[in-house]
Each structure stands twice: as C-alpha cells, then as structure tokens.
Design a protein that fits this description.
Layout: E1 6-14, E2 17-22, E3 25-33, H1 36-45, E4 51-55, H2 56-61, H3 67-76, E5 81-84, H4 90-98, E6 103-106, H5 108-112, H6 114-124, E7 128-135, E8 138-141, E9 146-151, H7 152-161, E10 166-171, H8 183-193, E11 196-200, H9 206-213, E12 220-225, H10 227-230, H11 236-245
Parallel strand pairs: 1-4, 1-12, 4-5, 5-6, 6-7, 7-10, 10-11, 11-12
Antiparallel strand pairs: 1-2, 2-3, 7-8, 8-9
Helix pairs in contact: 1-3, 7-8
C-alpha cells in the first residue's frame, strides 16, 4: 500500500525573520513575519503534523546561526520539527538534535563530505535526511549559490549506499516562484535511487499536490509548502482535509 503523504509547512529563517526566497536567490527575499515561534504555532494550530525549519543564514555561511530561534520553535511546539541549513559537522548535527529536533537535514555536506553523512547516519539513523537541491538536474550547494555539474540522481544513489532513507528534493529554479512543482523529476529520482522523497519547490495549487500524491508508489511521501501558504494560494487546513479524502 502507498505510504501516507505529509504536508509540511516551511519556516525559512533569515536575520530573525520568516522569509521566502525566489529561485534560491538571497537578493529576492520576501518577509512574512518577524516572530518564527508564532508562525510555527500557527501551522501547528492549522493541523500540521510537522514543520520544516531552514536556517538560511547558516546555509549561506556554512555554520548554524539560528540555534536560539530553532530551540524556541522546538520547545514551543508539540509536533516534530525537522531542521536544516549550515549543518556541516557532527557536532552541529548533534547540537540540533539535542535541542529536540526530530530530524536534521544535510545539504552541502552530502556532496562535499559524504563520509560525514555516513557517520551521522550511523549515529542517528533515520533522523538524518539529505536535501538535494538542483537546477536542471544538477546539484547546487551552499544555499544554492554554487552550481555543480554533479547529477542529482548520482548523489541520491550514493546517499542510499550510505544508509540514508529519505531525501528532500528541491528544484531550485521553481522554489518560491509558484510555477508548479517538478513532479516528473521528483518521482524519477525516487524510483532511480530507491529512496523516499519529500518534494520541495514550486508547489502552488491543489493540482500540484494531487500529482505528487499520485506518485506515492514511486516513493514520494510528502511536500514542503512555502510561499503558496504564506500568500494564501493554499489553505493548509482545507488542503489537509482534501488530501485525507483522496
């Protein structure tokens, strides 16, 4: 039977505020609030079973810079939190998990330090997720600033070999653009790598969510929602009820 399908609100932190980037560009940031805890509580109240928190400052800098904000969110919520952005050492990974996060999300480290990913999985098991962010199927690193020639599917397969169970796949060019999610590429990656995949980037309509939901047998198990929620193109509570009826 297909797995359950998660709708996961995103809270992207930059300079203490909740923002969304367009196309992964730091210069194209839109602010949606200056109280990340209140935003997290809002999504919990709307029925979210999990939230996705990204330290954008950390992603660009290569180190955790939003630990206090992360701690405050985790302590305020009664639902699991998955956290990413700038996690590039075992110490940083352990610190975020010790704050109470359910999952940590590794990005740049998956390409540049695969041995770190392997050791993190050995220590923390399924709490370790890998984010593969790509433009035209090629991986982008360091908060999507550095473009590589490495194919996303190659990274996904290598992560499977290291024991990673789940990845987050983001089509960077679509992220924050409300241009529609790249369903085909997301499903193909899940099938090619044999991993469970959470989609990210561009989901803006019920149709987008339904098309991803239809790919559950391929391994797609959820979607991270950002700008579409913040600009009220999607209502989280109504969408959750609809997905539950499918």
């Amino acid at each position: 039977m297909p797995a359950e399908f998660d709708l996961i609100p995103a809270i992207d932190l930059r300079r203490g505020k909740c923002v969304r980037l367009k196309g992964g560009m730091a210069s194209q940031a839109t602010e949606y609030g200056d109280d990340p805890v209140a935003m997290a509580l809002h999504w919990q109240e709307q029925g979210a079973a999990r939230v996705h928190v990204v330290d954008l400052d950390g992603a660009f800098a290569g180190e955790c810079l939003q630990l206090e904000a992360t701690r405050a969110i985790v302590q305020a919520l009664g639902i699991p939190v998955q956290c990413g952005g700038g996690l590039r050492t075992l110490e940083q990974i352990a610190r975020v998990l010790e704050l109470g996060a359910e999952r940590v999300v590794l990005g740049t480290a998956a390409v540049e330090q695969p041995e770190l990913v392997g050791e993190a999985v050995r220590r923390h098991g399924s709490a370790v997720l890998v984010a593969i962010d790509a433009r035209q199927g090629k991986v982008a690193l360091r908060g999507w600033v550095d473009q590589t020639a490495v194919a996303a599917v190659e990274v996904a397969r290598s992560m499977k070999d290291l024991g990673v169970e789940r990845i987050i796949y983001t089509d960077v060019a679509r992220d924050g653009m409300l241009s529609g999610v790249n369903v085909e590429e997301t499903a193909n990656l899940a099938l090619a790598a044999g991993l469970r995949v959470i989609a990210s980037g561009g989901a803006s309509s019920i149709e987008d969510v339904r098309r991803l939901w239809d790919q559950r047998r391929a391994g797609v198990e959820g979607v991270i929602l950002g700008r579409a929620l913040y600009e009220r193109r999607l209502d989280f509570r109504s969408l959750s009820a609809l997905v539950g009826s499918w």
